[in-house]
Write a structure and sequence with these properties.
Elements: H1 3-36, H2 55-59, H3 67-98, H4 104-113, H5 119-133, H6 139-163, H7 167-175, H8 180-191, H9 193-209, H10 212-217, H11 225-228, E1 233-234, E2 237-238, H12 240-260, H13 262-269
Antiparallel strand pairs: 1-2
Length: about 280
């Protein structure tokens, strides 16, 4: 084989592998999507042609499932987590990036080290503490836990973007009379916007999909969507049609969010946020 033929061969092999990987990833999504519109009888049969129904989506919001309440909890917990995490992480990241702090390296390493602590190790102290101060089974408790989970990740990611902003730009603005807050508002935040959006996306996804802490720290009032999936059981077994409908509801915000901010997401992932 000539060099050109070898290149064409490996291009075909690469394309085939990509298609196989894409097929493997999309099959579960297609299965869930189809099962969400099947009746309880059809969901146990492997057939592509069936009479679709939207009854499953109606049923999951009715007693005893009350998926609407869990959807509200997940939205509030994930949204408020991002609302607090990004401003706080931005301030911390800017301080680490622009000021010489005593023990800066040690602090950054300690922040990163928290990501390697298994959740099962710290969940019991959280449970005991929240029980004693009255935050057990509350949305406030879940928000605090999610902040502890996403803050280290957000600080490191946003710091990478701020490091990439030329310091000369800020110094020139300060020479012209701008204050530090004006520099941050008018220069740093606009230039770091892709990083902030990217960090916000990941923080929202982490908080939206969090399962273990929500399982242990909630019981009734603050139950979120991932925990709500465990309710779709009956005497005859798992109700796959209802599980699939609830799964579509959980995934839908992720798809919509990705479509809305895909430009910032791609830009953020290609600007070296994680170094």
């Amino acid at each position: 084989m000539t060099g050109k033929q070898k290149k064409q061969f490996w291009d075909v092999v690469q394309l085939a592998l990509i298609l196989v990987a894409a097929f493997i990833m999309i099959i579960p999504i297609i299965w869930i999507f189809l099962a969400a519109f099947k009746s309880h009888v059809d969901v146990y049969q492997l057939k592509l042609f069936f009479v679709p129904t939207v009854e499953n989506f109606k049923t999951v919001f009715e007693p005893p499932y009350y998926l609407g309440h869990k959807l509200f909890n997940s939205t509030v917990v994930a949204g408020v987590t991002v609302l607090f995490a990004i401003p706080i992480a931005t301030c911390a990241a800017y301080s680490f990036s622009r000021f010489s702090l005593r023990g800066e390296t040690s602090m950054l390493v300690m922040i990163l080290a928290t990501q390697f602590v298994p959740a099962v190790v710290i969940i019991l102290p959280f449970f005991v503490m929240f029980r004693d101060i009255g935050l057990l089974d509350t949305r406030v408790g879940l928000i605090l836990v999610n902040l502890a989970i996403v803050m280290p990740f957000a600080i490191w990611m946003i710091k990478g973007f701020i490091d990439g902003i030329p310091l000369d730009t800020e110094e020139a603005a300060m020479v012209d009379g701008s204050t530090r807050l004006q520099v941050i508002r008018n220069i740093v935040l606009p230039m770091a916007a892709p990083g902030l959006f990217t960090a916000g996306i990941f923080c929202f996804i982490i908080a939206w999909n969090e399962f273990l802490f929500a399982l242990i720290l909630t019981n009734k009032n603050a139950v979120t969507l991932p925990i709500g999936l465990a309710l779709f059981k009956a005497e005859e077994g798992d109700l796959w049609n209802l599980l699939s409908a609830a799964g579509i509801i959980i995934m839908l915000p992720m798809f919509i969010l990705a479509l809305i901010i895909r430009k910032y997401f791609v830009q953020g992932m290609t600007m070296g946020a994680v170094r």
